[in-house]
Prior knowledge:
The complex is a heterodimer of chains A (174) and B (484).
Chain A: E1 3-10, H1 13-25, E2 32-34, H2 42-46, H3 53-79, H4 92-118, E3 139-145, H5 151-160, E4 165-171
Chain B: H1 18-30, H2 35-61, H3 76-100, H4 110-131, H5 158-191, H6 195-204, H7 212-245, H8 257-283, H9 292-323, H10 326-337, H11 341-353, H12 361-364, H13 367-394, H14 409-432, H15 438-448
Helix pairs in contact in B: 1-15, 2-14, 3-4, 3-7, 3-8, 3-13, 4-5, 4-14, 5-6, 5-7, 7-8, 8-9, 8-13, 9-10, 10-11, 11-13
Amino acid sequence: MTKRFALGIFEDEDVLLHAVENVREAGVKIYEVFTPFPIHGMDDALGIERSRLPIAAFFYGVIGLSFALWLQIYTLGFDWPMIIGGKPHIALPAFIPVSFELTVFFCCHGMVITFYTISKLYPRWKTPVLDVRSTDDKFVVAIELNEKTDLNHLTQLLRANGASEVNEKEMTKF
Amino acid sequence: MQHVSPVREPLVTGGKTYHDVTQDVCRQVEAAPNVRWMAALAVALFFLGVFFYSVYRTLWYGIGEWGLNKTVGWAWDITNFVWWVGIGHAGTLISAVLLLFRQKWRTSINRAAEAMTIFAVICAAMFPVLHMGRPWLAYWVFPLQNTFGSLWVNFNSPLLWDVFAISTYFTVSLVFWYTGLVPDFATIRDRAKGPIAKVAYSLLSMGWKGSAKHWSRYETVSLILAGVSTPLVLSVHTIVSMDFATSVVPGWHTTIFPPYFVAGAIFSGFAMVLTLMLITRVVFKLEDYITLEHIALMNKIMMVTGSIVGVAYITEFFIAWYSGVEFEQYAFINRATGPYWWAYWSMMTCNVISPQLVWFRRIRYSIPATFVLSIIVNIGMWFERFVIIVTSLHRDYLPSSWAMFSPSIIDIGIYVGTLGLFFTLFLLFAKFFPVINMAEVKSVLKYTVDNGPTYTGHDPHHTTPQTATHGVPASAPVNYDKHD
């Protein structure tokens, strides 16, 4: 499906931040903002909710810890108990290092896999972008257009808020 | 929003704009390889060849090719293992610990330091795997069902803890590094001209577009990875030190080992980071990003950790005497005055005396002096591991088993060979990957450069939009006080 976008190009992140707030206040829905680096305050300006990834990471860690304890207690305590240095079969202090490492292992990899999955980031042969400069030095505000949108008005609004250029772009797959 | 004192030293010099950062970093990725790089790669590949030959000899003829004997059953292999793992720790320290402490200066060195971590851990892993003698059975270290034998692995053994620690450390460092690379791959992808480069960097960049939502998650992920990597890096060398500390060999059986090893690891790691950075900044003309200020700061960390190591040496000696244990006392007297006295005193000179020179400002800010110091520290830290391992083993409780160790040519070949492996990987990284984290450098550029990229002055809030950008109308109704 073909989508049409108006792209407001900004040169500076602080101008952008205020522009995003003003544009949203004016009742225009912003499709997405593309920036070359993370901008602090952008989440609030765009109304992006706080990510729940930390909560996910915590539970992945809990899973890792439970798995590690189960593995060690089951193998050395029940499946094939061995006397090692006269210690009890379930020698918890000796299990701490592996438990810690597996907690970290599950926490990190679980979180990172979740991050890539929910962000739909995976290797692609081709990556269409709205403006190639948005990974270099320009800050791009993309607003989706439909038949009813008044492009002139939108252009004026973006320019008044500091956009150095306003372009129109069509994307077939985005 | 943050405010940076105007008296602070700038993190990036030369009044760079965002576009300059992209240009400066992408230049060597996009240009044809230069002669100096190819010459360096040729040397590294030669030593990689030495590595493969030595590995072939080890696998074909067995561990007998090494200089080990019944008394000294662990020598260069474990020395090199600990040396390489230790070197790796500086990368994690820079990327994780300094992130948590909000040390913005780390932004221009973290990428290369993390790469160093990963390559160093690869080199380290070679030694225990080769020492198994039959590396194709290396999967036996994992807890697999007893169809592979009759027993499970022993979770009480520090060597098994090492398996878990090193594999967690390696994989976590790898994803941390890669996730940081994704936005920079996207930058290279969007600049790429050739069809191969376009596809290659498109695949590597995972479809990153830099949308605000993704950046928000990216920052969360980075922060948590940093938070988790910090205890991880401490745990890894703690566990490495427990390989020794949980045994009853005189000179090893001490509780001081974990902090002592961690400090030593960071010490040697920073030395290696300095060696690499001093070369990289010149070869790739990145002097504006890796400034003298960075070098001085890293020198300071090297001095602090070097001093901790020095205190640990003295403490060890004192405790050996104070413990009243005859064997412990002999182990330390033997280290300083026995047949390996030269190794002990090389270690003391390189690790205790040389970092103290950094107290002098002239040395801290001198590139040649820093370069020489960083090499000396790396040599010293290698000797430290050699001293701990070989001098403790070669004369322990039973004088009739005392023996000497000397390395075989294959021992030397594998060690020198891992240096070849390391530098081959590092040179390939430096050519095809962005050596500096562009996105992070851009994000600190405005607040640290003496002349910000678009605004003049340090505080963006009190600047008028007219001076800001081209194309902004003078009457722009932008409310600049809103965010204060």
